[in-house]
Amino acid sequence: MGKAKKRILHKTNSSLYMTREGALNEVFSMIKKPKREARVQALDLITLFGLSAEELSEAGVPYENIKALESIID
């Protein structure tokens, strides 16, 4: 990684920084909510991080929800 890219990454607000594990936890909590907005945000995180069905099932997402998201998940 170049110097400029490192500087840009270090300038980011740490509250906006999300790891892959954090994204999994967020998706798990969002899928449990009945609101449509939360599910749309969960889909956005799944596609952004390229989360797989295996990762979601290990995080505790029910099989029915994973099967419903089958077209989006690799």
Q: What is the mean pLDDT?
A: 80
Helix/strand-derived class?
mainly alpha
How many β strands by DSSP?
0
Give the count of helical stretches: 5
H/E topology pattern: HHHHH
> Strand percentage, roughly?
under 5%
Radius of gyration: 14 Å
The helical percent reads 55-70%
- Uncertain spans: none
Indicate the overall shape: elongated
Separation of the first and last Cα atoms: 28 Å
Reported for the largest beta sheet, the result is: none
Description:
- This protein starts with a helix and ends in a 6-residue tail after the last helix.
- It is an all-alpha fold and 74 residues long.
- It has five helices and no strands.
- Helix 2 (20-32) packs antiparallel against helix 3.
Notable traits:
74 residues, mainly alpha, 5 helices, 66% helix, 0% strand, elongated
What's the layout of helices and strands?
Layout: H1 3-11, H2 20-32, H3 36-49, H4 53-59, H5 63-68
Helix pairs in contact: 2-3
